[in-house]
Structure formats: structure tokens, C-alpha cells
Structure prediction request, 388 residues.
Amino acid sequence: MFAGTGSDVGKSIIAAAFCRIFRQDGYHPAPFKAQNMALNSYATPEGLEIGRAQAVQAEAAGIACHTDMNPLLLKPQSDHTSQVVLNGKPLGNKSAYDYWKNNFQFSIFNSQLRKEVCDAFDRLSARYNPIVMEGAGSISEINLRDTDLVNLPMARHAKADVILVGDIDRGGVFASVYGSIALQNPEDRKLIKGIIINKFRGDMRLFDKGKQMLEEICGIPVLGVIPYYTDIHIEEEDSVALAQKSFEMRQGKVNVAVVMLRHLSNYTDFDALEQDPRIHLFYTNNTDDISKADIIILPGTKSTLHDLYELRRNGCAQAIIKAHRDGATVLGICGGYQMMGVEVCDPDHVEGDIERLPGLGLLPITTTIGGEKITRQVVFTKFKVQSS
Prediction:
């Protein structure tokens, strides 16, 4: 298991790398993350949902992705509520507070989920070897220890050796690594067999003494120091990485503005555009930037009506309509496509308390949100038309 001192320290990329390394060495690996909280999801060949990071790791391992690789997916719908996706299918929306204030109800629910994720691991480990596991966030959230499904409790079930990943680029790597280990109980501390220092900039020889000092205070070997790579274009797991994206226009390129929605999902849809040197893709809810962009993309969202309401409130809706009238190209994906229509309706309150709102009126469509979401993989074949 690759566990972390915090979010965005590089666990997902390192797990993907080891999936590929094991495959190249002749093994038959598979990735596993018991619980994921992300809006960047992926459809399996069966049309079920898992976290996008495990789909990337499965590709690195050379196998098709499956819900057993990420049996529990939490998709935030608001600051307090998440949609619970179990074994690829939505269970419904759950409020953390509602369960925390009823400890008995929460205990039963948590026990059921723990059994489900452990069963998924057992099925996966019967088919593949080794299992490359990934933890979530920080392993030292001691207030969540009793309900943790994904970090050290999962490693205990799997009898996995744990490698702790620390991010030296954000600073404080000695404190974060030592503190993460020191805050574990004695049983869990024994599971941590090594440390990886990630995102190192400069001459690695300058960290030789630091490596030795870290091993002395932690009593655990530093297995490696990984340089800061700028050319690894693997899709990110969650919105923590959005902070590294561009939020401003640039001169001399085709400026593509992705409208910054509060509940933006699957922003990895646009990663390919970021690799084109002719294009500058940036995220914004600034009306001036939207009005000047060459292309405007309305992305997916987990709360279409609430985000549409916000676009109208902050002036972005009017800016998009005006930019389209002035010649800009406007594209919509998923919820963004629905916003481009005449009206969006939610009579059954699937997403929330707003029943209907007028759309942007750029497409002659009306969307009615239903209770069951259909996901499936699609294949696109590029072809060239020959002219006579």
C-alpha cells in the first residue's frame, strides 16, 4: 500500500508506476483503493462507476478496470452531502452529520461498507498478484481512525506492507513524515516498512544527509527519492490538483475558457487540450475573461441546477450568451450540455431543492433529470474523408 502524509502527495501516480513496473517484470498486478472521494469518475466496461485514478492504474497494469478496484466512491454534491456509489452503483445521497449524530446507525452503515470493501479486495486478490493498493489523503487523521475504511485498517485486512509517501515540494516533509508515523498506534506503526520522498527539485545528493536523519528519527528506511516531474500527464484524481491549473488568459494562443463551476466534475476531460501547444486552457468565472475567450466550455457538474443558478447570479450566464452572439464557440459536456438548453427540470429532487430553471437557450433541448443514471464506455474512431 502506498499511503500518504496528505492529499496530492503523489500516491496515485506512484501506484500507477508500480502497476506498470510489476507488469513489465512479468507479474499480473491490479490496483485497489477501498474508498475514493472524487468527482472525476470513470465508466467500467460494464457501465459502472469507479474513481478515475484506479482506471488509469488498471491501464498501466494492462487490464480492464473493474469495480472491485474501487468498490466505494463518494461523489460530493455539496459541502455536507455526498452521493455514495457502492460497487459501481449509486446508493443515494448521505449527509455525514446525519450519520455522525446517530452513532448506532452510522456504526451499522460503516460495518456494512467495511465488509463490502474487504470482500472486493478478497475477490481481486484471488485473481491478481500483486495488488497495488492506494491509501487516501493523510494516514494521520486520528479522529477518523475508528471509521477509516481505506488506510491502515485496510492494510491490516490485506496484510500489506505500507510505504509512506511524503511531498517535499510543499515543505515540512520531516515533520509530516515523522508525525504521520508517530501518530499511529503500535500495531499500525509496524505495518509501515518504508518511506518515499516525492517531488524533489534539484541535485538529489543534497538530500543525502536529510535521508539519513529521517531514517534515524523514524526508525524506518527511506526507500527512494523521486524527482519533480513536469512531463507526467496522468489524469488527476480530485480537485486538489485544480489549484495548479491556469486561471488567466494568455496572448498569442487559442484561449479556451472552462467555466469554473462550484461542483465541477471530470475536469480531466480537458487534459488532452492542455497538451496542445497552440491552445491555452484556463478555468474562470470572471465575466471579462469569458467574454474574450475564443472557445468556452461548460463542463460537467454534480449539481446542474445549483450551478446553473450560480451562473445566473454571478453574471457568467449572460457573459456566455453574449460571447456566443459575438462569435465565440460554446461547448457543453454532461451537465454543461444540459445548461445550454431551454430548460433543466428536476421534478423528483434528485439533485436538490430546485425543481426547474431556464437554461442558456443555446440549444433547442429540455432536460428532465431522472432517478437512474446510465453510464457506458464509448469508442471513437477517427477517419478521413477522401475527396474526389
